[in-house]
Amino acid sequence: MDRDSVKEPLDVLDIAIQRLLSMLDKDELQGAIERLNATISNSSPFNEHPVEMIRWISVFELQPNNYNPNVMAPSESRLLELSIKENGFTQPLVVKEDDGKFIIVDGFHRYSLVKKKKSLLKKTNGMVPVVILNEDKRAELMVATVRHNRARGEHQITLTVSYTHLRAHET
After folding, report:
1. Where are the domains of the chain?
2. What phi and psi, each to the nearest 5 degrees, are found at residue 44?
3. pLDDT (tens digit, 9 = 90+) per residue, 94-107?
4. CA within 20 to 30 Å of 102's CA: 28, 59, 126, 128, which one?
5. Is the per-residue pLDDT at 159 higher than 50?
6. According to the CATH classification, is domain 50-168 in 3.90.1530.10?
């Protein structure tokens, strides 16, 4: 099939989807979008990658893991909060589904900020983006947590503090 023969049916489909979604209430809308995303993800050449299927889940359905060694300095926490407030979520949390619960593998600090800060809870409607890992063994999940933490590298705290200080004094 060439591009021109696909363009028109995709345009028709796009309009039909927009019309359908505009008729749904907020709860139905989220479910419909998740279903459409799953359909597209299943056909994607990248469907083996968890990031291909991002879902939005209530922070109250998430549980921190009990093995994450990562800690965050208060200045970094303030910067992360500012980032979510101003830019929204740019990176999903990584979770493992276990008996209907979602255990956080990576993203604990983003989760806890949304849960604690009323402004973030309101901005996200109490939801956070997640990708679900398929690993089953606790050891594999622990390794994934450490790998995610280490992959971000060392932070330059002084730059973070300086940036936060500058932002606080903007006029």
Report:
1. 1-43, 50-168
2. -75, 145
3. 898 888 889 998 88
4. 28
5. no
6. yes
Whole-angstrom distance, CA of residue 151 vs CA of residue 84 = 20
Which residues fall within 8 angstroms of residue 128, CB to CB, at 6 or more apart? 56, 57, 59, 62, 89, 92, 93, 107, 110, 111, 114
Alpha carbon distance, N-terminus to C-terminus of the chain: 56
* E strand or H helix that includes residue 164: helix 157-168
Give Cα 11 distance to the centre of its chain.
29
In one-letter notation, the amino acid at residue 42 is N
Cα of 44 vs its chain's centroid, Å: 19
pTM reported for the whole predicted model:
0.72
pLDDT score, position 148: 47
Tens-digit pLDDT profile for residues 15-52: 999 999 999 998 899 899 999 999 999 999 998 888 89
The answer to whether 60 and 102 have CB atoms below 8 angstroms apart is no
d(CA 17, CA 10): 10
Structure-block tokens of residue 42: 């299943």
In this structure, what are the phi and psi dihedrals at residue 94, rounded to the nearest 5 degrees?
A: -110, 125
Q: Residue 89 has what DSSP assignment?
A: -
Q: Is the pLDDT of residue 160 over 60?
A: no
Query: Do residues 31 and 21 touch, judged by C-beta distance below 8 A?
Result: no
| Mean confidence (pLDDT) of the chain | 81
